[in-house]
């Protein structure tokens, strides 16, 4: 059977990707998960074909693309299979870089398209902020102050955090969100020249007692500084950004569905409003499904060579190197005040 898309992993993100594909009019979808309960749930909810193992899927269907919606620690397993088979693949947010150098080389040698996720880059506010910065509407930028905060147990209210990857130290919720945010930041601004930071476990989240729940990064962009604060201890989900330019100040709070720009000459806050479609039931109201749909649409077009995708494996790897540099700076270069 031809022209199918394979979704690997039918947990929360895998089901979301099935919905994204269906929103785009895709009907030939196969779902693969090792867990029978997840396969049956996806089959009943979305009326898709399901398989119990990867070899079965490859033997019985011809796939135009693969969506890898698994825990980040095992992304590389199916990325390698996609490269081997020459099938374009989309990968959810990365936090570990197992065999990245090898896979980057192989994708070039075999001309296979792999697209790492960059979801927030498709958020209407981020797209508008990128445009404002490109047009130098704020003047010379001095600093960026950005807080991304969530409460880890709120991610999956239907299961304990100990039951999925966010409870593991290597792929913990706080550590994962750092590259999730850095991806859009570096796609808009490029990579910093220098970075330093602190990270630690500040509270004991039941089921994820040992993860590092708070990260703070200072990134040197030459003539400006980006202060990024990420945590999974915020009892109210927050994304707030302040950009200070020498002519104007930008303020964005994702609760408001608008970007505000202060002009000191007129003493006036310009309000730039944007529309979002509702979040899926069970998700924070600000997690608009549209950015996920737009991301999937862009991937599918790029897989058909009808467009380009903003993120690359090389860029994704460099983002992870920023995360690792921050952790190294905390472990080796912090000066203690006695």
Helix/strand/pairing category: alpha/beta
Distance between the termini: 69 Å
Task: Name the CATH superfamily assignment of the largest domain.
Answer: Dihydrodipicolinate Reductase, domain 2
Overall structural domain count? 2
Spatial order of the strands forming the largest sheet:
8-9-10-7-11-12-13-14
What would the average pLDDT be, to the nearest integer? 94
Share in helix: 25-40%
Low-confidence stretches: none
SSE pattern: EHEHEHEHEHEHEHEEEEEEEHH
Number of helices: 9
Query: What's the CATH topology label of the largest domain?
Result: Dihydrodipicolinate Reductase, domain 2
- How much β-strand is present in the residues? 25-35%
- Rg calculated over all Cα atoms: 20 Å
The total beta strand count reads 14
Which of globular, elongated, flat, extended, rod-shaped describes the shape? Answer: globular
Instruction: Report the CATH C-level class of the largest domain.
Output: Alpha Beta
> Can you tell me the CATH architecture of the largest domain?
2-Layer Sandwich
Largest sheet: 8 strands, mixed
């Amino acid at each position: 059977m031809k022209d199918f898309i394979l979704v690997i992993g039918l947990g929360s993100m895998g089901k979301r990707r099935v919905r994204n594909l269906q929103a785009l009019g895709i009907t030939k979808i196969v779902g693969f998960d090792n867990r029978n309960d997840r396969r049956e749930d996806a089959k009943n909810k979305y009326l898709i074909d399901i398989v119990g193992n990867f070899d079965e899927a490859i033997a019985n269907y011809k796939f135009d693309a693969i969506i890898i919606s698994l825990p980040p620690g095992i992304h590389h397993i199916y990325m390698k299979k996609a490269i081997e088979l020459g099938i374009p693949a989309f990968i959810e947010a990365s936090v570990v870089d197992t065999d990245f150098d090898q896979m980057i080389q192989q994708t070039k040698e075999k001309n296979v398209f792999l697209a790492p996720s960059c979801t927030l880059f498709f958020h209407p506010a981020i797209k508008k902020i990128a445009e404002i910065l490109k047009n130098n509407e704020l003047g010379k930028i001095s600093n960026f102050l950005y807080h991304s905060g969530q409460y880890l147990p709120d991610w999956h209210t239907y299961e304990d955090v100990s039951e999925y990857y966010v409870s593991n130290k290597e792929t913990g919720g706080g550590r994962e969100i750092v590259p999730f945010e850095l991806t859009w930041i570096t796609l808009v601004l490029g990579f910093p020249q220098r970075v330093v930071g602190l990270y630690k476990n500040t509270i004991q989240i039941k089921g994820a007692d040992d993860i590092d729940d708070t990260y703070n990064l200072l990134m040197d962009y030459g003539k400006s500084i980006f202060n990024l604060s990420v945590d999974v201890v915020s009892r109210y989900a927050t994304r707030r950004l302040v950009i200070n330019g020498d002519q104007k100040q930008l303020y964005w709070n994702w609760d408001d569905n608008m970007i505000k720009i202060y002009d000191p000459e007129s003493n006036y806050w310009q309000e730039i409003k944007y529309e979002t479609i509702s979040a899926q039931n069970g998700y924070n109201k600000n997690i608009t499904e549209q950015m996920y749909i737009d991301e999937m649409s862009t991937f599918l077009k790029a897989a058909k060579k009808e467009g380009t995708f903003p993120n690359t494996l090389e860029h994704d790897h460099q983002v992870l190197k920023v995360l690792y540099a921050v952790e190294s700076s905390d472990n080796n270069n912090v000066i203690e005040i006695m």
